[in-house]
Amino acid sequence: GHGFLLAGCMFMHLLSQRNRFELLDFSYHMLNVAAHEACQASDKNTMIGKVDEQMQAETDAFLVTAARTRSLNSLMFNLLETKFPIGSDGVITFHPPATDKELSEGQNLKKGNLLKVQSQRPKDMARAASAAPTAAPPSRAAAAAPQAPAPAAARPPPPTPSGAGAARPPPPAPPAA
Predict the structure, then answer these.
(1) Interhelix angle 53-83/3-14, nearest 10 degrees
(2) Calpha distance 59→43 (Å, rounded)
(3) What residue spans carry the region label Disordered (predicted)?
């Protein structure tokens, strides 16, 4: 009877979305609000708003079901974490570009020269990736001077992703007709 719930937990775990789910799920939010209101009600013996008995009964039934569902989710997430641990990707640092060339390329977009901008992007990204992280950005005068790209042997290889998706082989090529 809990197949959809368990399958959903499995997908969320394998896609590393558990934290987002627990943050944005409405039933989790309602359980947290109910726990907060219970603390407030015991302190002051008053509530912010009064509701009729039918609404209170429906809310109580929803909270009981939500608590059971949260318990099942927690059990399933913990089981999946022990059997299929998902490592963190670590800290990702985004370095600024090596030059201010992108600023002048933005002007090309206004002129309709989009192909030139897109064709230069991979080279600029490789050049920015090979720049030292502690190097200060060049001045505008230095950026205006033409620069020769670094030789291919001097460039470091592009970073490879780490984590669950790193070991996947590329998809097979479609058969030739």
Answers:
(1) 50
(2) 21
(3) 97-177
Q: Say which residue the tokens 């064709």 belong to.
A: 119
Which stretches within the chain are classed as H helix? Answer: 3-14, 18-24, 26-44, 53-83, 101-111, 114-130, 140-144
Residue 156 pLDDT? 60
Burial tier of 117 (Cβ tally within 10 Å: 0-12, 13-18, 19+): middle
pLDDT in tens, 27-45: 999 999 998 887 766 655 5
Residues 6+ apart with CB under 8 A from 87: 162, 163, 164
Contact, 18 vs 12, CB < 8 A? Answer: yes
With H, G, I as helix, E, B as strand and everything else as coil, classify residue 168. coil
Count of other CB atoms within 10 angstroms of residue 102: 13
d(CA 93, CA 127): 16
pLDDT at 104 over 60: yes
Tell which wins on pLDDT, 68 or 128.
Answer: 68
Cα 79 to Cα 33: distance, rounded to the nearest angstrom: 27
Kindly list the domain boundaries of the chain, sorted by start residue. Answer: 3-83, 98-130
Residues 41-61 pLDDT 10s: 665 555 556 778 888 899 899
